[in-house]
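Changelog excerpt

This revision adds worked examples to the README so contributors can see how folded entries look when concatenated. The first example is reproduced verbatim below.
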Amino acid sequence: MKIDILSLFPDMFDGPLGDSILGKAKDKGLLDINITNFRDFSTNKHGNVDDYPFGGGAGMLLQAQPIFDALAHTQEEAAKECISKGRVILLDPAGKKFDQKEAEKLSKEDHLTFICGHYEGYDERIKTLVTDEYSLGDFVLTGGELPAMVMIDATARLLSDVLGNDESAPGDSFSSGLLEYPQYTRPADFRGMTVPDVLTSGNHQKIEEWREKEALRKTYLRRPDLIDYSQLTALQKKLLAEVKIEEE
């Protein structure tokens, strides 16, 4: 997957996108991440990329020209590699809320471009370039860099071979529609806190049933809004009924 990032602060991405799992994915050639400072495309002699809004108001707005030209440049470079324009993503508090399902959709793309804003907002005409607008939630950050990092991490880890175990991602919280069941590792007894007996029993059918039930329990207690009863299997409905009785 090719990822382009348009940002005024490219150094912010050095550590988060160069270390750990994403760094290894880049080394393997699974990810090609390029960061472009769109200030480099300013036609202003001082390198300004913002200006006052027409009609007055607080703060400054990002101008259209530097971002238009920066995006045209990155897309020309992608075309040289026979890579499609892909999806152009604007990080904006007014955008659609980003979640696991959206990450799964984006992970199927060959090329993603993230436009990271700053200041008070954007010239509205920038949005004519955009295919998707996303927000991480109902709060405002100082810029789009942190949301872009979060989205790239959530999306890239779903690519084949990035995690090293393709069975890891489907079992994550939200991927199955439920929160993930509790997990334990050695020792079996740590300071008097013991691992549930079923997990050391060797009975894989019982283990899977326990995991299913505990995933339902965690979701029921913490995020009941995620449970779509109509989508549950007969076994899940039975286990959920047991959970409700046990938690009364």
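The second example, added in the same revision:
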Amino acid sequence: MTAETSQTLDRGLRVLKLLADTDHGLTVTELSNKLGVNRTVVYRLLATLEQHALIRRDLGGRARVGLGVLRLGRQVHPLVREAALPALRSLAEDIGATAHLTLVDGAEALAVAVVEPTWTDYHVAYRTGFRHPLDRGAAGRAILAARQGALEDGGFTLTHGELEAGASGAAAPLVGITGLEGSVGVVMLADSVPERVGPRVVDAAREVADALR
């Protein structure tokens, strides 16, 4: 901790991170041990976080992440979208295909930003808010591959016809962003993805990741 930072805020944020990493919640004693502070401090932190609905306590006294975190989370997508748009525009215009940023939302892939090329006669219509299973389509498969440490050579994933007949996709995961799983990709009406597209998608994913750090 430096002189410019708040120890109390730091502890509160650490509490939220610890609770976010468990499915069954944590007791005051468990939090006290993990934080290295006494139980009185933990009680005060939990009371404050509970007032803001950021945590909740069940009948057994275990603390869990509260619904207030979801309300904060809804504001993340517009910020992420704004940061990603320049790289997506460049990718769409360069490749001549619809570019998208996709994030994990539960067990699904959710398109949070989409940019269509301006100069093509036709392109795939792919809308913000589109959802699909993580194990279908290049966007979701790239995320899963990164999660499992099983990315293909080159760092991108290619698919054909998994989400839309006649459409091919290429996607690369966002790398090095704590707490955010996603990918950048393109979708095009083609039997296969041209060779130069995969590396270009990897570059765009790196640009988006850099913008989000």
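Reviewer comment on example two: Strands lie at 55-57, 63-65, 98-105, 108-115, 131-133, 157-160, 167-173, 182-189. The first strand starts at residue 55 and ends at 57.
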